[in-house]
Batch of 2 targets.
Target 1
Amino acid sequence: MLIKLLKTSIKVEVTRSLCLGHSNCEVMNFEAGSEVIMSAINIPDMVTVVKHHNLKVVPWDISIETTEPKLDLLPSLITSHTVAILVAHIFGKWCDMDPIIDVAQSYNLPVIEDCAESFCGFDVIGNPRSDLVLFSFGVIKFSTAFGGAIAKIKDESVYKKMLEVYGTYRVQGHGEFLKKIFKYYLVYLILLPFSEKILISAARFFGIDHKAMAVQMLRGFPDQMTQRIKMRPSSALLQMLRERLEGFSKSDFETGQVKGDYVRMRLPEEAQMVGMKAIINNYWLFPILVESPDTVLSVLNALGVDAYRGATQLNIIEPETSPNSDDPMTPIDPSYPSEARYLIDHVVYLPVNKKVPFHVLNKICNAVKEAIRLSKDSPKVRIQSKL
Ligand SMILES: Cc1ncc(COP(=O)(O)O)c(C=O)c1O
């Protein structure tokens, strides 16, 4: 069924795309110390999985305009130790893979596409020339099934070996899946505007940060991650995934696009947009870059806009051997992912999605204008929360 849905002959489905990356590393059995070039923004767990296999991660800077890794840098990052290139399509935007694969193939290197954040239906399912394409259906993803991931694997023998490895992993119990659903339902209740007000008062009384608590609950497998990701899905999860994929509605998805575009057109110029020149510009997250992100964030929160900086785990991948940047005499390393650094240092995520009504989107745009204006007036602006 999933095969038909993804219009491909080869697939594996698992509980997390991290698990797929893990089993792929096991199968490829790269020599310890080999290098994997990764686009410089991803979640830390992805780096942990690669490092767990004694591989070195080489970050590859990305462009803020497109979110694509910078093609011209690629040849300078490839060494005799490079064994794979991993491109992440972040924030729901898609990178143009063909030029990257052309370079990779000229060095005989496999290409992995991390599409965890970019599922948008069955018209775009990764480049057929990529060796491994990973989709995630974890919580907060487009078409979430509260877990589950799909891989497209180009090479039949790699697919068979991955299936063998994967066959040794234990199957998730129904109870575990049910527990997860209850947990996410609780998070959903915590974040409802109605319950939020009651909770905020209670949390303040007990000195608890209720949003941090919700984020913590959303993050799966915090401890012993590399062990715990080795898990196959329960039949309940597979059924859920099947229903979510069968029920995928393009028009419903496009409502999110309309809302994203609506906000994009109304934001002030000082709010720099991310990935606007991406070949496919979907809005899984809605990042903007501002001069004083912490001040802008606190003003937005005070104005009742639930913008955030830390809720997503996306972060820069720092080079393993970074020069001491505190020393002004240290020459700038041309391969340092400085654009990725700038993005992470200046990003604020706006709460824009298909469910947000237009009048609230207007409020968000006005609040961003106000927050930027105030942040310019005084770096130390203090606003009392209206919540
Ligand atoms: C870019 C990226 N890669 C990989 C993953 C991991 O996906 P999963 O939770 O299915 O393991 C995520 C999840 O948030 C992600 O955002």
Target 2
Amino acid sequence: MRLGVIVSLLLYCVAVLESDGCLENERIGLLQIKSYILSLGREEWNELELDSWVENRSSDCCVWNRVKCSNISTQQHVTHLFLDSLNSRGSHLINGSLYSPFQELLSLDLSNNDYEGWIGKDIKNLQRLKVLDLGSNNLYGSIEGNIIQDYVKFKIL
Ligand SMILES: *[C@@H]1O[C@H](CO)[C@@H](O)[C@H](O)[C@H]1NC(C)=O
Ligand SMILES: *[C@@H]1O[C@H](CO)[C@@H](O)[C@H](O)[C@H]1NC(C)=O
Ligand SMILES: *[C@@H]1O[C@H](CO)[C@@H](O)[C@H](O)[C@H]1NC(C)=O
């Protein structure tokens, strides 16, 4: 009983500590996405769009451009990522592993990016994902059938 109370208190403290903005692993995950996007071609447009995504522990990633978090006060998980219309030069791959830190993600917009295919973990382990927008890319015919089957649980726009 007493241990249970202590554990609850500890969990409460952790929740309170984390209540100030986004979760650390999600902040790091976003920075990995940023460096991947910039590695595909350091276009000025991309740098400007992701300018608010800074390597600073006290920066709340929930207020970063193109990011939306749940507004539950105790745990601010990233719920929406609007990563459309970036990297317009050349063609490249979606790295699915980059999205695995975002377990509360509801909506992922990767449209209009000239993506040609998929590498890394696929995103079916994102249990809450409801909207996956892959529109205006060059994915058709290049994604293997089994991955497409995983996609059908999502609303593909
Ligand atoms: C980090 O972010 C905090 C809060 O936004 C800000 O006050 C501080 O100046 C930033 N530090 C650096 C080194 O940019
Ligand atoms: C926060 O959540 C409430 C209840 O779900 C919703 O009505 C409100 O619009 C949300 N606010 C923001 C800024 O997302
Ligand atoms: C894909 O993302 C993962 C996680 O950040 C990384 O470890 C891996 O090197 C990336 N793969 C490529 C080909 O960029």
